[in-house]
Amino acid sequence: MLILWLTTVAMLWCAEARAAVPGCESQSVYQPALAPLREPAQPPGDVSVILVHGKNGSPLAALFNTAAAALAQRGYSVIRPLLPWAIKWIGGEWVYRWDGTQCEGLNYLADLVAAERERGMRVVMMGHSMGGMHSLLYASKAGHGLEAIVAIAPGHMLPLSRSVLDMTAGEVSRARAKVAAGLGDEPGVYATYYGQLWPLQTTPNIFLSYHDVTQTPDFNAVLPAVTLPWYLTIGTSDPNYGFYERAGVITKLPAGSPNTYKVTSGDHYTILDQVPDLFDTWFRSWSQVGAAPRNAEPVVVQQLLNQLLLE
Question: pTM, whole model, 2 decimals?
């Protein structure tokens, strides 16, 4: 009975949309199987960091555990949500299953931002890889709810990410044909691209929301619309190193202090080890972490539910 009650409360919390992202009003809010993981700030402060994982990533990944703990030790409350593009633990194995559209994921992030602001917190959205792309995308659409964004080695920025566009063109055509035949919600297997093609269990409608340039926003327009403070970083050993200059990503983003493009050491994943220090130094150079507001208590229901689900 306790598990049923906790699950019901958590689902109601997730389903209660506080503010849909502009352009996504007609779509629902993503409802993940796992409520957000939380690391309370040490000492408590008034800034929450929503840490958004990458393509086929997970909030449970070891590098995210380390980064979240390091951010918490620097005074930031950390929230790690499970997004539609995560790898999922299903039937005793890890499965690449995307189970929500891009808009549903953005609406879920909007709910998380609104919930933190209701607790009196200021909010930073920090995303890695495809999560970095979604941080930029969110900021361009609904960034008024954020203090700043941090994009860590962002990828999948269509149509600038030509390799993704070219390698998935056949998959997009196949998914479009399914939609035209009235089978847009039929489960199937479609491939996304990062380094190589990776098969996904998903539906045509979900797949196209991330891969079809007629549906997913054009980053030529997204980047100039990021009007709040931004910090973008990449490691010199990342395969995408140099891409941002070639594709004009940095020049499309608004210039001016405190906006920062930082090239550092590390690859696509080990860069996460450096991010807590890099972010903390940057953020405190133009802002500060104040005392935690009185009502900024963690959501106990979420913590209890996660503990039960992970045992």
Answer: 0.89
